[in-house]
Design a protein that fits this description.
The protein is α/β, with parallel strands linked by helices. It has 3 domains: 8-114 and 244-311, 3-Layer(bba) Sandwich (FAD/NAD(P)-binding domain), CATH 3.50.50; 117-241, FAD/NAD(P)-binding domain (3-Layer(bba) Sandwich); 330-397, Enolase-like, domain 1. It contains 10 helices and 27 strands. The chain has helices at 15-26, 52-55, 68-73, 133-144, 157-168, 184-187, 189-201, 296-311, 376-388, 392-397; strands spanning 8-11, 33-37, 76-80, 84-88, 93-96, 101-103, 106-109, 113-115, 127-128, 150-153, 173-177, 205-208, 212-218, 220-226, 231-233, 236-239, 243-245, 261-262, 268-270, 273-275, 280-284, 289-291, 323-328, 331-337, 344-351, 356-363, 366-373. The strands form 7 sheets. Strands 3-2-1-7-20-19 form a 6-stranded mixed beta sheet. A hairpin with a 2-residue loop joins strand 26 (356-363) and strand 27 (366-373). The longest helix has 16 residues, at 296-311.
Length: 400
Amino acid sequence: MTSTPRAVTIVGASLAGLNAAEALRRDGFEGPVTLIGAEDHPPYDRPPLSKQVLAGDWEPERAALTDVEELEDDDIEARFGLRATGLDLEARELTLHTGETVSFDGLVIATGARCRTMPGTDGLSGVHVLRSLDDCLALRADLEAAPQRVVVVGAGFIGAEVAATARGRGLEVTVVEALPTPLGRVLGDEMGSVCAEVHRDHGVDLRTGVGVDRIEGDHRVERVVLSDGATVDADVVVVGIGVIPNTEWLEGSGVQLDDGVVCDASCLVAERVTAAGDVARWPNQLFGETMRVEHWDNAAAQGAHAARRLLDEGTGPFAPVPWFWSDQYDRKIQLAGRVRPDDDVRVVNGSVDERRFAAIYGRAGRITGVLGFNRPRHVMRYRALIEQGASFAEALAADF
């Protein structure tokens, strides 16, 4: 086999897959490029689904990243509504859910992830997850019907954004979180508590340290039964308890799977096969850690990097500083780096009480992350220090 593919097929038509396709053309690749997506929609932006589109401030079309005409202009063949169900590396063939087989030369795997669901809720109206545009529109319709009580299961960033959007609509919201502190496993208890208080400040009934035993209703959801025996009436329930990488279609293919598609540091999976986005697990040499990252910024950058790796064996490692943001009420929350709950945390600017501050995280003498509440400039500057491998002492001494 030659080192450079004559044609490239991309499985997964979300942000990572689209960026891979666009990067191929931007870098001068002239061979056929095919973009295969399971959804019927052209690629769209996911962050607005829990915010502007869900709130009704944007119509769905505004979240579009491209359209069929733009893809045609870039000579990218778009095939939507097709789900990959198998991969034969030796034969260089994909199998689609229609039974069709598609030959490939170079391949980018960008099949993303799907939401975890609650057992016993199949077919129960009013119970939602939020991942796709269709999910968003179904939930929006239920919120526009002015329900008496919305219950959000899980106080992670998606659950928190949905809660904030529902409160912005004037709805009564209960958030149920199994952990004692929301986001405690991500941000640590001190900063997780700040996130919790933001929601309480805005009238959310936040219940922590308690799980959900079951969701009940006759055809439509009526109540949520908690693990402590309490019940919460609900007309709408949103389940935000994490995601599962879409890798089942790769089982038995020879591709290594471990909570995602295992790549090397350059995003290579196998000969002329790369992976990117929420489905990819790779060793990030900047942190000395293997990671799978579910952030918008990572999907965009990794998609482009995975495409370049197909074209050039000399492409170096993909070693970014992970970064994301979350809009909740009037707060823009940003986190950059790779933090652990037991990291040393210091507030370096602003006031926690006012919910306007920057805090940095340190471990083993090095800055590992920065959290900002309405402090975008500080987040970006400390992010640069993380990228440079600065010491924690240097970060504490910085005057931003």
